[in-house]
Specification:
The protein has 253 residues and is an alpha+beta fold. Helices cover 30% and strands 28% of the residues. Helix 1 packs antiparallel against helix 7 (212-228). The relative contact order is 0.20.
């Protein structure tokens, strides 16, 4: 691991850049979790919007495939089924109905893989994982809300014109658990993105430094949104970079 660099955007969002083995570059995006809805409940509807702004800007030129991993996906569906039907048999796994999550008309496929805590694991016995084409922004926000806290949502970004869903399925099915750097994913997809540390940050893997400008533009888009909010304007003189939370925090009075 070497060549570590840090970029700052108005001291609100930071990027770290590291060169890893196998010609892989890792970018970590910090600061998107600035809206602390625990201390400021009025931010509850805003807390994920910096992440959404970043993703929508970054994904704009690409064909994007979304992964929602097991076991979090199965646990969500079991909970939904329980609430709807008031009971669920013990030790019974009910097959997920993806349409109840992503709506109708979205191309998808289900795979017997496990993706959790930002990592691929051995085959899951707690249901299947979902691969789907990028849904509408409101559904993307729903996926972030439900699954980013367990780092069970990830994205494969491809140059347009490829059969991205079929390519992703082929690559992921033969993936060795916890071995992303040596997998063929980065030979097919331009970018692989997932959340880390319970949704605290994004980690992006790439093999070409040409994507760096796009990542920086996406960061700038998020910052523009953050600094435009009434909450930021009200608290900006009290904000400081907190190394424990990896984001700006309002200083205690």
């Amino acid at each position: 691991m070497n060549d570590r660099r840090i970029y700052e955007f108005n001291d609100v969002v930071r990027i770290t850049n590291e060169s890893l083995k196998w010609n892989v570059i890792s970018y970590n995006i910090y600061g998107l979790n600035i809206f602390d809805c625990f201390r400021f409940p009025e931010l509850r509807d805003l807390c994920l919007l910096p992440y959404l702004k970043f993703l929508m800007q970054l994904m704009e030129p690409y064909e994007t495939i979304c992964l929602v991993g097991s076991p979090a996906l199965q646990e969500w569906f079991d909970d939904l089924h329980y609430k709807q039907h008031l009971k669920i048999a013990i030790d019974t796994t009910i097959p997920v109905v993806p349409e109840q999550l992503i709506g109708e008309g979205i191309h998808y496929t289900m795979l017997s893989i496990c993706f959790h805590e930002g990592r691929f694991w051995k085959i899951s016995y707690s249901g299947k994982s979902l691969l789907c084409k990028l849904p509408a922004p409101q559904i993307l926000l729903k996926l972030l809300t439900l699954f980013m806290g367990s780092d069970s949502v990830a994205f494969f970004l491809y140059e347009k014109g490829k059969d991205a869903l079929a390519v992703t399925r082929e690559v992921v099915e033969c993936l060795e658990p916890d071995n992303i750097l040596e997998s063929p994913i980065l030979g097919k997809a331009t970018l692989f993105l997932t959340s880390q540390n319970e949704g605290e940050s994004f980690e992006i893997f790439a093999q070409n430094t040409s994507v760096e400008a796009q990542i920086r533009t996406a960061c700038q888009k998020s910052v523009e949104y953050i600094v435009s909010t009434d909450w930021f304007m009200k608290h900006k003189e009290l904000l400081y970079w907190n190394n424990l939370t990896n984001c700006c925090t309002v200083r205690e009075a």
